[in-house]
Design goal:
The complex is a heterodimer of chains A (142) and B (64). Chain A has 142 residues and is mainly alpha-helical. Chain A has 4 helices and no strands. Chain B is built from 5 helices and 2 strands. A two-stranded antiparallel sheet of chain B has the order 1-2. In chain B, helix 2 crosses helix 3. The chains are: A mainly alpha (142), B mainly alpha (64).
Chain lengths: 142, 64
């Protein structure tokens, strides 16, 4: 079995920091790609394409950093995050399609946006992790 | 699955944090195993057995 020179805590900290860096970079490049055409380069298509390409490349690096972070976790944390992902995927599918049916039947007049789905998924994931962590930590000692 | 991890930890005067460090896992994982909320994988069970110089069966027992 391959053994890292870093301790579990150090490895976790390093991976978290790495993920935070790539996530920040992705948010910044997304903001540049979104607002750049109006503010920075007056709708120039070439600049827009380059900005989107950079955003996608940085996004892929963020995905890799996320994968590394999960791989660096211990087995309990990995299981916890796997459960949170399953809940997020399931809730997005169920509520997303239910919303689609409600809207197509004309029961709801609300202008949806992709950001609402991202927000819903993010909050579902966060709440799932917090609830499962709380369940595990109930009666914690030390 | 029942286990004697808490007893063994006390016998060796380890804190949960120390045992977690020795087994390369989080303290939360040690706590969850001790409380029977989480069953460790075979590699982690072997690691614990090696650390305490025991067999896996000496530490973990099937509840059936």
């Amino acid at each position: 079995m391959k053994k890292s020179a870093l301790t579990f805590e150090q490895r976790n900290k390093k991976n978290n920091l790495n993920l935070a860096k790539w996530t920040s970079a992705w948010v910044i490049t997304l903001a540049i790609a979104s607002f750049g055409p109006h503010i920075l380069w007056q709708e120039d298509a070439l600049f827009s394409m380059v900005a989107i390409a950079i955003n996608v490349v940085v996004g892929i690096m963020m995905i890799m950093a996320n994968k590394r972070q999960i791989k660096g976790m211990d087995e309990l944390q990995q299981r916890l995050h796997l459960n949170a992902m399953a809940i997020t995927l399931g809730a997005s599918l169920v509520f997303g399609l239910a919303y689609s049916v409600v809207q197509s039947s004309g029961l709801l007049q609300f202008k949806e946006d992709i950001s609402h789905l991202v927000l819903f998924m993010g909050l579902t994931y966060l709440i799932s992790v917090l609830v499962m962590n709380k369940q595990l930590n109930d009666g914690d000692e030390e | 699955m029942k286990n004697r991890l808490k007893v063994l930890r006390a016998e060796h005067n380890f804190t949960q944090a120390k045992l977690a460090e020795l087994l390369d896992v989080s303290r939360q994982t040690i706590n969850a195993i001790e409380k029977g909320k989480f069953d460790p994988s075979l590699p982690l069970a072997f690691k614990a057995a090696r650390l305490f110089n025991l067999t896996i069966e000496d530490i973990f027992q099937d509840e059936e």
